[in-house]
What does this fold into?
Amino acid sequence: CARHLRDADRLGKSDPYCVVTVGEIQCETVVVWNTLNPLWNRRFEVDYEPGTAVNFEIWDKEAVGFFNSDDTLGKATLEAEAFYPYGFIGELQLEGGLDDSTLRVMIVCATDHEVYRVDGGGWRLVRRVSPSDELHPAKDHLKGESEYGEFDLDPEKDATFTRKFDEEDYDEMLFATGTGERWMIATRNDVAAAANNEPRNISAYSGKCGAYKSVWQNMHDAESGPWIAPVDAFDAGSAASTGAIH
It folds into this structure.
């Protein structure tokens, strides 16, 4: 979406659309007619070459005619180091627009692994632990304050790492096995508010239809993080198919 675009039309307001360019690849949103605050809500998937910048340019669609051409309303560039490999969510100042003209974008860096497409996709990998009986060594209670290991986008890589995500913009968390066979989704607020032996909401789970509640363990005065599972924590260790995911 964009905000506070320049009004380039003599009658009515601008009719903006956005062109996204990644190397030789170019994608274009639909036109949103007669607005200075368009919401496109479009997603594009491209094969990305690391190091390539992403360019955005917003145009005002003109009526079809021999003397008419689309007018630029502003452009912005996001360099590779700003989003790869962690991704990016935020607002970009539009060069050539008004002083307060901005474009809000989200870039997700992912492989073609199916876990990135769970429940419609859009997930950003932040934490991974090598296959073992051990849980994550992080001690931040899933606040995203810990940082260790070497980050890798491969969800099945034999590696243990986490990156900081405490200042990122998100409202849901996906907990999944490396293969993506088992997964569950909970809201950020439910995870943050998790208390010891207290039922919390699970928005979705690969082994069950619909939302429900399960009891998690989380002692905030302990160093270990919350014990999150799709079943009650005291039952989580009884079966490998329903054990703790974090």
